[in-house]
Amino acid sequence: MQKTDGREEVSDIKKEIDRFKKDFDSITEEIGKVIVGNRDIVEKMLIAFFATGHVLLEGVPGLGKTLLVKSLSKALGFDFKRIQFTPDLMPADITGTQIVVERGDGRKEFEFTQGPLFTNVLLADEINRATPKTQSAMLEAMEERQVTVAGKSHRLREPFFVMATQNPIEMEGTYTLPEAQMDRFFFRLHISFPKADELKKILRQTTINESYTIQPVLNPDLAVERVAEMRKLVREVLVSSEMEDYITGIILATHPDNKETRNPVTEGGSIVDLVGRYVTYGAGPRGAQAVALAAKANALLDGRPNIYEGDVKKVAASALNHRMLLNFEADADNVNSHHIIEKILEKLEK
């Protein structure tokens, strides 16, 4: 009887994994009907969403970043709002504010009016143009899922997902995001310019009278519950002790002052020299958490209840590239964090 129960439990887990993959793929395909190319970006954006993280998206203007986030909200059936960040934007402009209202009996009292942060999917456009004070309000919303106005906290809706953008070209008049806020982003993704065939497809789709309307994939009445189930399943994916050591080794290898003699990256010298020469600070615990959660989601997409080395390799660069602080010498030698992470993964390869 116990064996039968065990088989039934395994069967139930497989059904849940298959259902997760089916819903994930359906959302990806629905978004792909409007977004040309960039399938890897779409998949990683969804991985971050189901891992309860936020995404920082970088790319030159006109590559469809706004359309991408709108398409995600429509495919999921959730509310969408966009904030264009500017230097004169105040925290109250995004969190909401207290206003005086007059009741029917003549009494006047304060009432909280919600700002654009009270949504499910938020596009924070050019977030680095906001002042540090406004950025700190965004930081609280992203990390705590709440805003504080006049000393009172207000919970945000669930699910709450932020896709922030930065323009890598025009940096004049911007306020660089501090490392503490960069660390709050689950992934930093770079959207590249479309290839020739993709550009032609964009022309065909956007210069005719016909247009495609994205339909919600999830049942609108049960979307919130279904997303909660999928997020719960991601965290239930198994991580072996060996994989924990592997992820820990990657994180430690990003630190120039790493003294772990058992860490394979410290042997051979080449990676130690690379990190020691170009890296000021390495990734922290949040980086390890992001790699593990993203690897778990990737394992589910492959139909497995446990992660392996390939899952970690697929997501490590996106999860860690913004958590490493490089020095001026790295900029002068045109060395970026992606390059360093790739070298670390090569050295750790079994």
From TrEMBL:
Keyword Nucleotide-binding attributed: yes
Taxonomic source organism: Candidatus Scalindua japonica
Organism classification: Bacteria, Pseudomonadati, Planctomycetota, Candidatus Brocadiia, Candidatus Brocadiales
Protein name: Methanol dehydrogenase regulator
Pfam family, one: AAA_lid_2
Presence of keyword Nucleotide-binding: yes
SUPFAM superfamilies: P-loop containing nucleoside triphosphate hydrolases (SSF52540)
Family stated for the protein in its record: Belongs to the MoxR family.
Domain AAA+ ATPase: 51-197
PANTHER family: MAGNESIUM-CHELATASE SUBUNIT CHLD, MOXR FAMILY PROTEIN
